[in-house]
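Fold this sequence, please.
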Amino acid sequence: MSQTRVDRRRGWHWSDYWRSGRAEVMTVDTPTGPSVFDTGAIWTDWFAAFPAGALLLDLATGSGQVARHASVAATRENKAFEITGVDYAEVGPVEGCTLMGGVALESLPFPAAHFDGASSQFGIEYADTRAALAELGRVLKPGGRALMLVHHADSVITRQTAGQIAAHDAVMGHGAAVRLAKRAFTAHRKALPPTDVRTAEEAFREAVRRAAARLEADPAFNPTRQLVGYLDDLATRIAAYEPVSALARLDIFEQSNAAWRHRQLAQTQAALDAAGVDGFVQRARRAGLALTERAEAHDGHGALIGWRIGFENGWGPDSIEIE
């Protein structure tokens, strides 16, 4: 089967994120600072049960974190697995695994009944799950197993993300501070009359002051606090920056900020409540995937982090399914 590629723009908000070397999928703020969820034990124990030579597929692989866990499990069990990860974003290489970027979960470039197992960590729920689950059912061998860690609508991750979006929007609004920053530096670049330059500079500084005044002590404001800090430095030291360079940096700043917000918003929209999981399971059933486990997943501190959902392929009408 020929490889099906998706429009690279679909993954624009993730491509730079993964290429930057980020290995973790999600961090949360704690009283002692950011904490990264370590899901390694979940995956290494699950992968360890596969036989030597198993063909494994990681959906929405990102930085290949779960694929690496499969490789660790193989080494621990003295086995060899063939591990493939796919993502619609552009992703970098991972030793011991094959990662393929620009691939849609709704149209996988693999033959039918090819894989022994499939995994997804905070990934498949971002896709069109009806089509993605149908593809999963197609490429899994009869009896092949799948395990998914899916965003939960009430998890600490989702609640933190929603709080950060709300804080960002309350402080940054519709991006007036960035627009006024560009206007001020454009005034310098065009060598406008001094009165026009001063007017543009003061409008920029006032926009930053208003944004800073909307910041609160709540940790949800921390990402936005960094954005305001950057703009405040520009506003305070306008003369220290070469206008063309400053405008180029502002374009990058604006794109990075938009990508961050898009990722955060997509996560809250993809997260599933109990009814959402019911629908997810029904779509999987229609794809020939029998439910083998469904539970809320918690981290080592007891915090709710997502849904753990397992399936087996190739079930019949007389099969027993866990509800």
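The radius of gyration is 23 Å. The beta strands are 27-30, 33-36, 55-59, 82-86, 98-100, 115-121, 140-150, 289-298, 304-313.
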